[in-house]
Amino acid sequence: MNLRFLETFIWVARLNSFSATADRLHTTQAAVSNRIAALERELGVRLFDRDLRSVRLTPEGRAALSRAEDIVRLTQEFQGAISSKDALRGRLAMGAIDSVVHSWLPRLIRRIQQTYPCVELDLTVDTSLTIAGQFHRSELDLAIMMGPVIAPQVESRFLGSLPCSWYAAPDMDLPAEPLPIASLAAWPILAFSRGSKPHQDILRHFADAGVKATALSNFNSIATMMILAEDSLGVTMLPDAAAQGAITAGRLRRLAVTPPPPPIDVHAAYTTQPRNTIATTVASMAQAEAEAFGRRGRDEEGDAG
Amino acid sequence: MNLRFLETFIWVARLNSFSATADRLHTTQAAVSNRIAALERELGVRLFDRDLRSVRLTPEGRAALSRAEDIVRLTQEFQGAISSKDALRGRLAMGAIDSVVHSWLPRLIRRIQQTYPCVELDLTVDTSLTIAGQFHRSELDLAIMMGPVIAPQVESRFLGSLPCSWYAAPDMDLPAEPLPIASLAAWPILAFSRGSKPHQDILRHFADAGVKATALSNFNSIATMMILAEDSLGVTMLPDAAAQGAITAGRLRRLAVTPPPPPIDVHAAYTTQPRNTIATTVASMAQAEAEAFGRRGRDEEGDAG
DNA sequence: ACCAGTTACGTGAGCCGTAAGCATT
DNA sequence: AATGCTTACGGCTCACGTAACTGGT
C-alpha cells in the first residue's frame, strides 16, 4: 500500500478523470492509470467504472474513498504536526510580477514565513520579461510570471489566471458602454512597461481594431498606474484583483470594453536539475494560494451576480 | 512519507530496539536504521534518543507515535474493509505438527476461512520429520513444525514456543516431587514417534541422567498418548496446551520433573522462490495467532501464580 | 571481544515517462 | 481524426542486504 496511490485515487474520484488527475499531480496519464490499476489489483476490487467518456466510482470505490481521505488527511496532519519548522532552511531567491503582488503574493509570503521560519526570502518584483531573464541566468530559484517556461530541466506549473479589465476614474467623460476597444485610443493609455505581454496584447488589440495607439505610457508598477488613473490622467488595464480596493472606494470604475482583455496566466518555474526542494515546496504553496484566491474571486462574483 | 517507515517506527517505539524490530519485521538492522533515519530526515526531528545500550522515544517521537499508530491502523482497516475477500484464492497445502493442532491451529484455520473464503486448505498433520520431507519434495506450500528450515529460497519464521511438561494419571503411584528425570524410566514412557525431536530429547535426557530407557512407546498422535496416560498406562510428555483440558477435568496431573523438558519451538517455512503469496500471508496469520496464544498462556499463568 | 546502531556501496524491484494500442465518437 | 484509458518497454531512483565501521562496556 502506497500513500501516493491513495492520493491519486482520491483525485481521480474527485475529478472523474485520469488525465485531469495526471495534470493536477504533475504526472502522466499512464502513471495515474498504473497507480489505480495497482491499487485495484492489490485490493482485488474494481474502484472505478470506465466507459469511454467517463470515469465513475463503483460502490466499493465509494466505500474506499472516505477511508482513503481519512488516511491521507491524517498523514498530512502528521507531517504538519511533527515536522520540524526548521527542516526546510536556506535562501530562496523568488521573482514575481506585480499582478500577483496585488493578488495572492502577500498571503503566500505570510504562509512561507509561518511554515518555514528558517527560509530566507529574497523577493524581486519586475516584469515577466525581466524575471524570465534573471531566472535563466540562475539569479532566481523560483520565477512567478506570465506564460510557461519551456526549457530542459525546468519545471513549469500553471498557478492560475488573473482576470483583467479596463478601468478609469469615475469622473472621466467616456462614451456609452460597451466601448469598442478602438474608442479607447482617444485617451491616454496607462499601460505596463513596453515589451511586457499585457503591453503587447494592448497593442495587438488596437491593431486588430485598425487603430494606431500612440498615447501608451509605460510603467513598471501597477500602483503607479492606478494612482495616475485615479487622477483621471487616462484609462488603464489592470488585474481586477488590483483594482478591487479602488473600485470599492469609488476612485475607479470598471469599463465594459469589447473585446475584453485577456487574463494574466500566472506560472511558476523552477529547476528540476539541480533539484531545489525549497523552490518546489514554495511552488506548491503558491499553487494552493492561487487556487484559493481564484475560488474566492469566483465566489464573490457569484455572490454579486 | 512511506507507510512501511511508519510501521517500522511504531515497532521500534514498542520494542525499544532496532535489531528486535528488524527480527520482527523480517528485515535487517541496517534497513531499520535507514528507515528511521529517513523518517527523521524527512521530518527534521529526532524521533529516538540512542545511547549505546538503549533506544528511547524523544518527546517529539512520543507525539509522533500516536499519530503514526492511527495512520497505520486506518490503513489496515482500509485493507480489511475494502480488500476483496476473493482476492486471495487458490489451494494451500499446509503441513502441521500435532502440538499446534492442540494449541492454536483451530483458530488459525477459522481465521483463514473467514478472511479468505476462496482459499482451499489441504491439511496434513504428521511429525516434523515427515512434514519437513514433504515440504522439501514440494508437496507442501507451508510447513508448520519444529526447528527452522535452513535452505536457499526458503523463508523460515519462528512462530512461538509451546511449553511442555511431564504428565501422568492422578492415581499413579509416583515418588515425591520434584522427580529427577532418571526416576521416570521405571514407568512406561508414552512418547512421540521415534525419530521426532521430542523423542530424541527424551532419550538424551535419560542418557544424560545415566539411565537407559527401554520402555518408550511410540505414537504419532498426542490424543492417543493422552488417552493411554489417562488410563494409567505410563507417563507422557506433552505440550501444556494439549494437556490443559485433561488437567482441568482431573484426568491427568502435571509432574514436577528436573530438568524440565524443553519447549517445542514452532517455525513456519515456505518458499520465497517461487514466491507464494498465500503461504506468506498465512504464515503471518499463524505468527499472529501463535503470539496471541502465547500471550494468553502467560496471562493465565500470571493469574494462577 | 562483543554488542548495537551507523555508514558505504553494489544490486534489484518498482515506478515513471514515452510511445504505441485500442475502442469509441 | 480526436479523445481517453490501457499496455509495453526502457531507464532511473530508491530501498534493500552485505559488510565494514564506530564507540562504548
UniProtKB/TrEMBL annotation, chains A, B:
Swiss-Prot/TrEMBL keywords: DNA-binding, Transcription, Transcription regulation
Sequence ranges assigned to domain HTH lysR-type in this UniProt record: 1-58
DNA-binding keyword on record: yes
Keyword Transcription regulation: yes
Pfam families in the cross-refs: HTH_1 (PF00126), LysR_substrate (PF03466)
PANTHER family reported for this sequence: HTH-TYPE TRANSCRIPTIONAL REGULATOR, TRANSCRIPTIONAL REGULATORY PROTEIN
Similarity comment text for this entry: Belongs to the LysR transcriptional regulatory family.
Name of this protein: LysR family transcriptional regulator
Organism of provenance: Falsiroseomonas selenitidurans
Species classification: Bacteria, Pseudomonadati, Pseudomonadota, Alphaproteobacteria, Acetobacterales
